Amino acid sequence: MRRVTLFVNGSARNGKVVAVYGTLSDLLSVASNKLGIKATSVYNGKGGLIDDIALIRDDDVLFVCEGEPFIDPQTDGRAQEELTGSHTDWLTLNVGGRYFTTTRSTLVNKEPDSMLAHMFKDKDAWGNKQDPRGAFLIDRSPEYFEPILNYLRHGQLIVNDGINLLGRYYLSELAAVIHSCPCSPCSLSQNSQPAEDHSPISRKEFVRFLLATPTKSELRCQGLNFSGADLSRLDLRYINFKMANLSRCNLAHANLCCANLERADLSGSVLDCANLQGVKMLCSNAEGASLKGCNFEDPSGLKANLEGEFLLGVDMEGSQMTGINLRVATLKNAKLKNCNLRGATLAGTDLENCDLSGCDLQEANLRGSNVKGAIFEEMLTPLHMSQSVR
Length: 390
Hints:
Layout: E1 2-8, E2 16-20, H1 24-35, E3 41-43, E4 61-65, H2 77-84, E5 90-95, E6 98-103, H3 104-108, H4 115-120, E7 136-138, H5 142-154, H6 174-178, H7 203-211, H8 382-388
Parallel strand pairs: 1-4, 5-7
Antiparallel strand pairs: 1-2, 3-4, 5-6
């Protein structure tokens, strides 16, 4: 098997040794992946265009481009980068009126799935707007952008006093980096450890974050600490609260339509009259929570999913839960009086000592559920029970 060394056109740095196999298209695909560019052509060291993989010999040095002419790597480096417009060229960013200079590779390589990587991986892929000085315009706060750019440069999160880490929405994977310093203002230096501040996020901080975020952006609040916060009456649609600490929160009248609350801690929280259409609450803990008068019913047909949720002693009186998925959930001692459970999936659910009086259970699936000591409406005859409860 032949091996070659690949460089970006015009550069003799950061080469990648790869195996040559298959067709020329296969080699271009490997080059695109290794060099972070959209490879379309390959040149040999003398500038000859290679159009057949059979022309490549073992230990060849090849230069890959995105369609531009061959550039001799012996020429001035900065001129090369300006001519190629390649993955290593220098960029100036205008972030909220403040200028930052960096390289395309800094924005793309470390976090390839981030918003910045998608914006600058392919030239003009996002139709990036430029100001009169040629700087790319980014409508974000420069105070939040600076620590993120430094993280991309050095791999270390360095945050000044007064910077709330909720501003990390530029990068999808930065949550893992700041997981050890929860969302509270903290000061880091290159020789210090994150401050041990596990204080929960306040309503004021969170509202400020919501107002600064475009309405169409996906908000990732995964694993964050909101314990005891007042989030009542807020628009929290589509937010990812997976594994978040929402214990003892006030979420009354909040709009949580299609929110992701999977494995979240909702114990002791108040969600009375909340909109929970299409909510995802798989395996979350809502022990002792109050969900009176909640709406889980989505007219469009999207069903709320509470499969495996821990709802011990929960109060859900008067909630609309048509078609809800509560399979294998724990509802022991729960108050479900006057709930609409028509067509609900309650298979394998623990309903021991539940108050189900006044509930609409027509077409509900109670197969394999534990109804020991449960209180049903008198109209539910033994015949109905035998059809749905094992």
